[in-house]
Amino acid sequence: MTHDTDRQLLVALQLADSFFPTGMYAHSQGLESMVAWRWVHSADDVQQMLANLLTWSVLPSDGVALLNARRAAGRADSSELVAIDWNLHAMKLPAETRAASRQTGRRILDESALLLGSDQPCPVYERYRTDVASQRAPGTGAVALGATACAAGIPPQTALLMFCHSFAVGVLGAAQRLLPMTHSEAQQILHSLHEPIAAMSNEIQHRPWQQMTAFAPQSDIASMLHECDDLRMFAS
Questions:
Q1: What is the pLDDT along the chain (236 residues), one digit of tens a residue?
Q2: Quick check: is 184 in a domain?
Q3: Which CATH number goes with the domain that contains 120?
Q4: DSSP of 198-221, one letter per residue?
Q5: Residues spanned by the domain of 43
Q6: Lowest CB count within 10 Å: 8, 164, 178, 231, which one?
Q7: CB 100 within 8 A of CB 19
Q8: Are 30 and 219 in contact (CB under 8 A)?
């Protein structure tokens, strides 16, 4: 590895770490309502829920958006970057899900700007940050990470795997607070997700952003129910 490659890897690890303050720890992605309504009872249920959510919703929508956003940023195509952002935002049906994605995206942009400063090779990154701040773009988490990956020199596939890892870790962290789940069980679930994430990541590599799809009705319903719950530990 070269010095630059090492540095890019270290930045990627930092951005994907749960220690990085994106606020994802505050979101259960509907799991809190699933537990409350007895749809999810155990670690096995969490594993199945996460596998389905990643395969049928997160990767085909957020994942496709992230890959195309990273490439659009690399081409300095700010118009396409914003178009991808709005399209992904519109696909998130529950209000809580849209709000969670925007909150995460804005935190990614704010915190990464403090790290990267002006010493980065992606001029569209700063323009996108301005578009988000002025609400010309929603600033979804996946697209924000795609733009940030461009600024940090992180390849598209690496950025996609970072996003999936962070998403899974966030849900598993919520599961540990909602269910009797050990750290070992959470790690085993995370490891079991590597194969489906890798397979689906390869499948969507060249999918255009106009073909984004998302089908997670149980998760969407849980998020909608969560909006009306009287007692909530998580923001989503």
A1: 577 789 889 999 999 998 888 877 777 888 888 888 899 999 999 999 999 999 999 999 999 999 999 999 999 999 999 999 999 999 999 999 999 999 999 999 999 999 887 666 688 999 999 999 999 999 999 999 999 999 999 999 999 999 999 999 999 999 999 999 999 999 999 999 999 999 999 999 999 999 999 999 998 898 888 777 666 667 55
A2: yes
A3: 1.10.4190.10
A4: HHHHHHTTT--GGG-----HHHHH
A5: 29-226
A6: 231
A7: no
A8: yes
